[in-house]
Amino acid sequence: MTAPGDMPADGAPDRDPARDGAQVQIGLRDVELRYGDTLVQRGLSFDIHRGDVFVVMGGSGCGKSTVMRCITGLLEPRAGRVLMQAVSLWELPPGRRTRLMRRNGVMYQSGALWSSMTLAENVALPLEQYTALDAAQIRDIAEYKLALVGLADYGAYYPAEISGGMRKRAGVARAMALDPDTLFFDEPSAGLDPISARRLDELILELRDSLGTTMVVISHDLDSIFAIGDDSVFLDGISKTMLATGNPRRLRDHSDIEQVRAFLNRGRERT
Amino acid sequence: MSAGPAANTHHPPPGAASADFRPDPAESGTSTPAANAQSANAGATGAVIHFAGSWRLERPLPSLDTLRATLQRHGALQQLRFDTSRLADWDSGLAAYVAALQRLCEQQGIHCELDGLPAGLRALLALTGGGQRRNAEEGIAGEHVEESRSTFVRRFGLDIIDLFRSTGEIMAFFGEGVIALRRFLHGRARFRRSELWLIIQESGADALPIVGLVSFLVGMILGYIGDQQLAQFGVRIYVADLVGLGTVIQMGALITAIVMAGRTGAAFAAQIGTMQVNEEIDALRTLGISPMEFLVLPRMLALILMTPLLAIYADLLGILGGAFVGTTIGGLTLTAYLIQTQSAIAWNHIAQGLISATVYGAIVAASGCLRGMQCGRSAAAVGQATTSAVVTAIVFITIAAAVLTILFDAVGLS
């Protein structure tokens, strides 16, 4: 039930055929996650292809964010392997692991901007720490990244002075500071009005198209999932494992699994 | 099904809520139209509960206990019906009562016939699914029930496990701190210099008024008590010795440390704890920036630098406080008081005070940062972290004061 072959491989109008040959950016192999003794998810095996918008979806509390914490190097899996460009993340010594972790950028649910610093300083910090650029260059890059997410004039603001949607955008700018290979978004549309949520979705697509960055989006927002998802995995909170992978629109219409169809159709059966 | 005050005109003001239990004489045959076939052959084992009056949360409601006792007395009861013809109005007070009654009946194997209840109330009851069944479905509430029934032995065991875990955490924190310090000494630690200056300003310069005020007052108190005692022997001039030595050796450092614990240590715990809640620490970690270097190290450095300086300032103001009492009440001249102080205090006394202050500063910073890093992910946890930071700091300052006094004596510094 976990194999991608679960879905018909052909005949889907919205499937990009080039994707089949795409390289695997991140792969999970039979990963099991626990907090203490509490099982969160197990038996997770799926591939995230380069350049895709990959959605990790499922009901509230099913462990979506925990999966993200594992892939981004914050929570060690109890079993299984996380492969980043064929390198097993959790089998590396800590020093090399952090170097690999820096190839990821993460936008946290609330933005998680460092509240004692301005937006420009937030974006600049990773650059100060990990590049040999001088202060003026860093300032320019920080301004450029803020402009990319539509916050060109807000560099001098503190996180507490701007709205929730702007904070998320600034979080994206910071996540992109080091030009990561993969960008993670934890619930991008949570707590946003429909228009801001839509604009954030558009931003994700624009950035993917222009930079070729792989996007991993944690979400339970159906509009957003169907609008941006190329590929996805569905996590179930009751059986505590993944139930399906594949293009979310196709899962909605053709999945054999009742929970997946129910979730993607807002609990209503389609006629 | 008469609800609302209008139907209640024969009951002048809506009476107090009541639930009367009566055996059901008209059980079989002439039962309510909605009674189903099952209840028809229940015979004399049925009963009716009459709800009357106003069942609203803001009024006193009858306790279920009386009804429970009645039900137990009627051991053979198999079916329960409800009559609400005299019910004035109701809200969730009645719904909760009936839901609890339903659970009770379920346990005793009594069938509850809900048809006599208002339609709205029946819908509400259907929503909660008869109380317990839904909890069992979600499987979460059950665990909590077990948790709250913990015995003394169980709590004691959990406390011991907690103690081991927290000792482990403190050791890990200490170890990581040493690694961060080593990287700092090699000039490889990652933190922002501007942040360090800001912390130095906030914990140092901004603390001058409160440290000054408390030290001056404590100096005055020492001076006043000393003066009263020494005047009996006619050696009032020794107030200067008493205040000077007391302040320089111990009180200056101790006052500074306790003010710092309440002011700066608590702030550190709250800052770092809030960062934990906002995932700001996670954001640092994913970038490969160690929060130990980035957040803890500058705070430790700032307090290790600033606490001794503040202690010197506290010493000076303490001596001034003593001098104020000595010159006004004690009748000494300021010059005489200061010369006497100068002759009493030697370098080793100052060294004791400064070493103590440095140790206390490290303790305050470490407690604040440790509790902040251990903070859970809620607003309540930040409050606990702050409280715990101050308590931890004060406990360890007291222990350190005792240990240092013995050490100074052993190395001949006192």
Could you characterize the architecture of this molecule?
- Chain B: Residues 1-41 are annotated as: Disordered.
- Chain B: Residues 31-41 have a biased composition (Low complexity).
- Chain B: Keywords: Membrane, Transmembrane, Transmembrane helix.
- The complex is a heterodimer of chains A (271) and B (414).
- With 271 residues, chain A is an alpha/beta fold.
- Chain A has a domain at 1-7 and 21-103 and 215-271: P-loop containing nucleotide triphosphate hydrolases (Rossmann fold, 3-Layer(aba) Sandwich), CATH 3.40.50.
- In chain A, 34% of the residues lie in helices and 24% in strands.
- Chain A is built from 9 helices and 10 strands.
- Chain A has helices spanning 64-71, 94-101, 119-130, 135-148, 164-175, 194-211, 222-228, 248-254, 258-264, and strands spanning 24-35, 38-49, 53-58, 79-84, 87-88, 104-107, 182-186, 214-219, 231-236, 241-245.
- Chain A is globular and about 55 Å long.
- The two termini of chain A are 24 Å apart.
- The relative contact order of chain A is 0.19.
- Residues 1-18 of chain A have low confidence and may be disordered.
- With 414 residues, chain B is of the alpha/beta class.
- Chain B has 2 domains: 5-148, Transcription Regulator spoIIAA (2-Layer Sandwich), CATH 3.30.750.24; 190-410, no CATH class.
- A 4-stranded mixed sheet of chain B has the order 1-2-3-4, covered by helices on one side.
- The longest helix of chain B has 39 residues, at 239-277.
- Chain B is elongated and about 100 Å long.
- Chain B starts with 17 loop residues before the first strand and ends with a helix.
- Mean pLDDT of chain B is 84; it is low at 1-13, 26-43 and 131-143.
- At the A-B interface, helix 2 and helix 3 of A face helix 10 and helix 11 of B.
